[in-house]
């Protein structure tokens, strides 16, 4: 085993110990709603995670829930697709410093109008970022959450995900990016992992899960041609 792999393996174990340790310390147990595997289904095809129900809870509700103010932005992809998001750079969930991105459920026609009213535009590695007007920020905060992306601040060994979520219904590997997606359609969950990288957990309503899976399947099919 190489030194680099030894370091990665050690970090992975340490990360798991941190998370499991929060359950073992008397009087210091985390709120269950702070745990990424605590997923509820308040109604058929509904997902509630971190105390927020996708499709129902507003983006502003997340600021109340996390006790932090998020950074609102509008993004335009190289293909021209628009998305409005609320980004939390650093919040504490179950004792772990994490990042969270919430995507707003706003019709495309309204996103285009918000884009035209944008105050400033800046290039990013994956498109353009538009600064919204105060009125449009208010619209964003009052919009329902369409997806939630959770990025823990530590690397996590896949054994922990197997223990908490069980075997994935499907596994898709992106050879181009060196990442693997574990898919749990019943929870609307896509766990993205790459060697040496921190995991990314994205949650959507189960009825919207195809929107996550189809682009991955298309990329995989294209790479095998």
What's the end-to-end separation, in Å?
34 Å
User: How would you sum up the major sheet?
Assistant: 10 strands, antiparallel
Number of helices: 6
Overall mean pLDDT stands at 86
Protein structure class = alpha+beta
Question: Which descriptor suits the 3D outline?
Answer: globular
The share of residues in helices is: 25-40%
Keywords:
globular, 32% strand, three-stranded antiparallel beta sheet, single chain, disordered N terminus, ten-stranded antiparallel beta sheet
Model description:
By secondary structure, the chain is an alpha+beta fold. The longest helix is centred in the N-terminal third of the chain and has 22 residues, at 3-24. Helices cover 31% and strands 32% of the residues. Strands 7-8-4-5-6-9-13-12-11-10 form a ten-stranded antiparallel β-sheet, sandwiched between helices. The protein has a three-stranded antiparallel β-sheet with strand order 1-2-3. Residues 1-27 have low confidence and may be disordered. A hairpin with a 4-residue loop joins strand 10 (170-174) and strand 11. The chain has six helices and 13 strands. The protein has a domain at 10-166. The chain is globular, with a radius of gyration of 18 Å.
What's the gist of this structure?
The chain has 225 residues and is an alpha+beta fold.
Task: Give the topology.
Elements: H1 3-24, E1 39-40, E2 48-49, E3 52-53, H2 59-66, E4 71-76, E5 82-93, E6 96-104, H3 108-116, E7 120-124, E8 127-131, H4 134-141, E9 145-152, H5 158-165, E10 170-174, E11 179-184, E12 189-194, E13 200-204, H6 210-223
Antiparallel strand pairs: 1-2, 2-3, 4-5, 4-8, 5-6, 6-9, 7-8, 9-13, 10-11, 11-12, 12-13
């Amino acid at each position: 085993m190489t030194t680099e792999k030894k370091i990665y393996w050690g970090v992975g174990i340490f990360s798991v110990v941190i998370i499991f340790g929060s359950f073992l310390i008397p009087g210091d147990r985390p709120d269950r709603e702070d745990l990424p595997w605590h997923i509820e289904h308040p109604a058929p095809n509904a997902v509630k995670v971190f105390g927020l129900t996708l499709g129902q809870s507003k983006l502003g509700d997340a600021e109340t829930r996390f006790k932090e103010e998020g950074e609102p932005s509008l993004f335009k992809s190289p293909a021209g697709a628009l998305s409005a998001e609320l980004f939390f750079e650093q919040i504490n969930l179950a004792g772990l410093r994490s990042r969270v991105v919430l995507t707003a459920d706003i019709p495309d026609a309204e996103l285009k109008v918000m884009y035209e009213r944008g105050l400033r535009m800046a290039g990013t590695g994956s498109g353009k970022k538009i600064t919204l007007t105060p009125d449009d920020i208010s619209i964003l905060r009052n919009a329902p959450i369409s997806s939630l992306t959770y990025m823990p601040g530590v690397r996590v060994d896949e054994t922990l995900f197997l223990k908490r979520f069980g075997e994935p219904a499907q596994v898709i590997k992106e050879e181009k990016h060196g990442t693997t997606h574990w898919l749990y359609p019943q929870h609307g969950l896509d766990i993205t992992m790459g060697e040496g990288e921190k995991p990314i957990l994205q949650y959507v309503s189960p009825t919207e899960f195809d929107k996550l899976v189809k682009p991955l399947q298309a990329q995989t099919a294209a790479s095998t041609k």
